[in-house]
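Morning run. Coffee first, then this:
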Amino acid sequence: MSPKYTKEEKQKILDEVTFDFYPVSDGTQLLKLTDETYSSWLGADNLKAFYQWKYLDNPAGEALVYGAWHKEKLVSIYTALPSVLLVKGKPVKAILSCDSMTHPDYAGLGLFSTIGKKLYEYALQKGFHLIYGFPNKNGIHPTTKKLGWKQYGDVPLMARASLSDLTSSLLFNDKLQLFSFTSGWHSAASKLFNRGISIETITEFDESFDAFIEDNDSPKDVTVRRNFRYLNWRYANKPGTPYKIIVARKGEKILGYAVLSGEKKIKDKFKVLYILEMIAKDHSLFAYSALISHVLRYSRTQHFPFIGILASQHTMLRYSLLLHEFIPIRRKFFPQEIYFGGCCFSDDPSLAPIVENPDGWFLSWGTNDVI
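And here it is:
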């Protein structure tokens, strides 16, 4: 709950507040604010390593952080991580919104929107063209009402009960009947295609993934640019989060990869296996099938009752998931409120219509910074 200030008290504090760019090379004040605001972030053992990874080691550049100080005390920040998007195949500098916080004693003073606007101005000066992100229920209204954000369509969440086909059928039977015939044909064809395919677990990505990604155009106009350095930073090098990285190969040829993360996320009761991202060669239905089939087997052996993934509309990935009995989840059934949107502040007038298209983004859980 925000503290109750009189109009005079509020104005006095605001007159004393200063705003400036936060020097991320020294995280002392920011980590102290995080501890006072959230009580804990990742835990004391991982906090400094997590800060180093997230704010300093990003291959796209150090984090942009704008702050508000009251009598030399950092009381509010707005953070964004540099990112490179591919927009119709061309690289565009962008920033991913994250880690915005205000000390509880300074809530309700409008600091969030003030430093947000200053951050956007600074980002534009540094050559960034837009900001995007996944606001929660507390962030969606301030960003849209005060910072000019637009919602870029619904978050394309899909899920499947994984412990048994019976469980899945009991939950989703009416949906699955629509795909029963097609799924049967697909299953038979997949068995032929999948002969000779091996699935292996790796701990990091190497240069061979650059060639694989370059040969696979995004099925959408907007996607995060991936290369082996980005993938290693995002998954292999992230402290405190053990990801499982699987690769499908036929001989020496990479057919696709997927990144998995298991966390207790639904009301602290059900373990959910998250597919953070999955990409198959030429976005092939059968290559996706090999990866999805392996994920289903893994989820059962590790006793994950549910699997969740973001899969954009009108993509072969989404169609492949439907054939494997995943179903779209409506917003009112989300385990927590999450939205997707952003703000384009570019001088290029052709950019906004592309990034604001609700059907234009190739999204994954890995696109955000939370999981």
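The first strand starts at residue 17 and ends at 21. Good start to the day.
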